[in-house]
């Protein structure tokens, strides 16, 4: 299997060197950058498998870097933040990050999250490569092109972040079936994801705002109280 290359964008030199040392011990190729602008340059000039991205960066913030990267290519991103407030985590996810860890963090936990994201990314690439013709999911006014990762509502293209897209595909693929929050976490974020069920609730809320005519009275993404969600049509 091709060696995975991880880009570490972190302005704290001590932490940057520590991450590089530990990740190299695990067999990863590690590239580093000390600010947001430098991180973008490395990303655009190298083949990167995953990015560890600090939120508080000089020159350009990690959130802005995340937004730009996500607009150019689908590569797993884990945000590193010294802030514990939920709003910072939510904004990072809205910008397209796949996961986040709050400093100080356990190196073992970080490595587990990296492995989970890389495994899922490789599985998605392999699955896409095995399909030669376009595949679609359709329900009501919603149509998903699975190969191109495009979503249309009444023929109009929609902008979804990667996790919103995966969540919608999962629910539409199980139309009418109730999925628990734990099942959704396992399928979309990976069985060893250490987040909690609120992550699912937040993403469902974002999806409703984009898909539903009335987000407070959803037609498609329905809540099954005390259990989870289903896609109803």
How would you concisely characterize the structure shown here?
By secondary structure, the protein is an alpha/beta fold.
What would your notes on this structure say?
The chain is α/β, with parallel strands linked by helices. The protein folds into 2 domains: 5-129, 3-Layer(aba) Sandwich (Rossmann fold); 136-231, Arc Repressor Mutant, subunit A (Orthogonal Bundle), CATH 1.10.10.10. The protein is 44% helix and 21% strand. The protein contains 8 helices and 12 strands. The strands form 3 sheets. Strands 2-1-3-4-5 form a 5-stranded parallel beta sheet, sandwiched between helices. Strands 6-7-8-9 form a 4-stranded antiparallel beta sheet, covered by helices on one side. Strand 1 (5-9), helix 1 and strand 2 (29-33) form a beta-alpha-beta unit. Helix 2 packs parallel to helix 3 (62-72), helix 6 (162-173) crosses helix 7 and helix 6 (162-173) packs across helix 8.
């Amino acid at each position: 299997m091709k060696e995975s290359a991880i880009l570490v964008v972190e302005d704290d030199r001590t932490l940057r060197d520590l991450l590089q040392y530990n990740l190299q011990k695990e067999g990863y190729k590690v590239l580093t950058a000390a600010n947001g602008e430098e991180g973008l340059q490395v990303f655009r000039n190298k083949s990167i498998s995953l990015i560890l991205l600090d939120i508080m960066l000089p020159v350009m913030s990690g959130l802005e870097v995340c937004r730009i990267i996500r607009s150019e290519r689908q590569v797993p991103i884990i945000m590193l933040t010294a802030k514990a407030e939920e709003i910072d985590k939510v904004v990072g996810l809205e910008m397209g990050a796949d996961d986040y860890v709050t400093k100080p963090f356990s190196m073992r936990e970080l490595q587990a999250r990296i492995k989970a994201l890389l495994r899922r990314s490789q599985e998605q690439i392999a699955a896409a490569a095995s399909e030669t013709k376009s595949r679609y999911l359709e329900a009501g006014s919603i149509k998903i092109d699975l190969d191109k990762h495009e979503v249309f509502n009444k023929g109009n293209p929609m902008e979804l972040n990667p996790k919103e897209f995966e969540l919608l595909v999962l629910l539409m693929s199980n139309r009418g079936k109730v999925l628990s929050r734990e099942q959704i976490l396992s399928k979309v974020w990976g069985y060893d994801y250490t987040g909690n069920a609120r992550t699912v609730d937040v993403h469902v809320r974002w999806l409703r705002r984009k898909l539903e005519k009335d987000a407070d009275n959803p037609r498609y993404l329905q809540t099954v109280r005390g259990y989870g969600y289903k896609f109803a049509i």
